[in-house]
Amino acid sequence: MDNKKNFFIIIIIFFITGLITGIQFKQQPSKTDIITMKNIYERKQAIENEKLEIEKLRSTIEHLDEKLEKYNASDYNVDEVIISLQSELEKIKILIGEKDLEGPGIRIYMKDSDKYVQGQNINNFIIHNSDVLEVINDLKAAGAESIAINGSQIVWNSQIDCNGATIKVDDKIYAPPFIIEAIGDPDQLEAALNSPNSIVQLMKIWNIQVHITKVDNIKIKKRESAPQYKFLKIAEEGES
């Protein structure tokens, strides 16, 4: 394979890596006949999360432009390219959950309220998948580098769905209490969740039990299985 083809493959690899890095968790709007303050807050947070995603994608584009400039240079070093690719491969393995991870961070304990107020909407006193998703988005916005729910590592294509009184994380079902662990700057992560506009503070208004603990070294296990793709394949060179 000539140098031109090698260069083309390198650019494609970096492009895919950049796109994967730019992916964030998304939630489909849930259908409900009842509009509550909690629903309004969640919609507002969803808009803010979309804005964060746009900014992250812009940053990814700038990152790709820098790589294009580097590898367009006529004097690029093959050894440097190999080292760079190996580094990118390790990042991809982390993104898809193929690595055991550890580092400082926080642990969040969440449990349904045990103080239901007569006449109030019962849904405000229990934890929903949307609440868990909002906590994860707040952690990611605060710089969390890895997150797990009840021991299950969350990766770029993880799904968090409602499953009656429980939640379904990918193919596993969990009942309260939920324990979310996040690796990152403990002070920064804790501050984000304790900010006045965070979902955690809203849950506390409804007496949902939320306890945050700083941890010196959190360990997050790799996923039991790698993502499986039924329809995705790498396009052959020359395909349109």
TrEMBL record:
It comes from the Bacteria. The chain crosses the membrane at residues 7-25. It holds the Pfam family DUF881. Belongs to the UPF0749 family. Gene3D superfamilies: Protein of unknown function DUF881. Residues 37-74 form a coiled coil. Keywords: Coiled coil, Membrane, Transmembrane, Transmembrane helix. The keyword Magnesium does not apply. The keyword Membrane applies. This is Uncharacterized conserved protein YlxW, UPF0749 family.
